[in-house]
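### Sample
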Amino acid sequence: MEVRFAGCKSDYWKGKINQLKEKYPEISFFEINRDFEKEEIEFTDILITYRLKKEHVEFSKRLKYLFVPYAGLNNFPLQVLKEKNIIVCNSHENTKYVAERAFALTLALLGKIVLFHNDLKKGFWHREGLYKEYWETLRGKKCSIIGAGNIGIDLAKFLKVFNCEIMGVKKRLKNYEKIQNFDLLTDDINKALSFGQIIFLTLPLTKESENLINEKNIYLLEGKYLVNVSRGKIVNEKVLYDSLKNKILKGAALDVWYTYPKEGEENKKLPSNYPIYELDNVVISPHKGAHTREAEEGDIDFTVSNLTNLLEGKDLKNIVDLDKGY
């Protein structure tokens, strides 16, 4: 049996891989670069990787299991993986940190932290006491969390400390289903958009969720705040820009985007095709929600534990439904 770790280069990863080599000397463990050639996995049985191309899956002859050390799978060739009956497992250990990031961005947005910070560096104090000089409290706000999964559940814990009233959106909602810290649950997106004063996006990007917020329903967000820590494409890019520029949306905090630097490119690239980042009712962040040491090590621990389950014939956790994409 051949197991390959692609792009698992951190010292923490290396320590875990060495432990596996010692524990299972009969199994061949290999470390390869993140941007590996398809020939490198031709006879791989189990692959642990942060990225995977369609042609790699098609070329592989023995690949049966794929482990992804994070949650989002929108850039993986799910259809080909399904056609080849490859079992895919991901990790949700980073979700609590994404929720923390969403909460921090919300406080920064409502508190005008970035605006006041930048102006005070120029000597402008915002002390006139006029309404426009106020910052806004989170306390008691109505919040809609679009995606009552792992991130949404952790986010709700933070919001409840501020006595927020919370509505969660969940697909395939069961009758009388309850989730701790959610006051209301619905499967109706428009109902949730109408309810909340703050709209949080914490759902995975799928064919169904792409362009979920668009020109047809943006009017439901008039005078409200939007916080997106899931994927940029869930919100129509032009609609987002126009609604912020024209003050339909009161403001937005964004950790996810539409354009990213490519691997190997100079790390200088604006995050949108529209100048969203120039608006003063926006707080922006470079997709860093899961970028803490604790998140990375938690994902690694879970992935190695799940791989160990497979090697020892135990049940796997977090098997992805390749039709749903999560």
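The CA atoms of residues 3 and 46 lie 5 Å apart. This sample (Hydroxyacid dehydrogenase) is used throughout the tutorial notebook.
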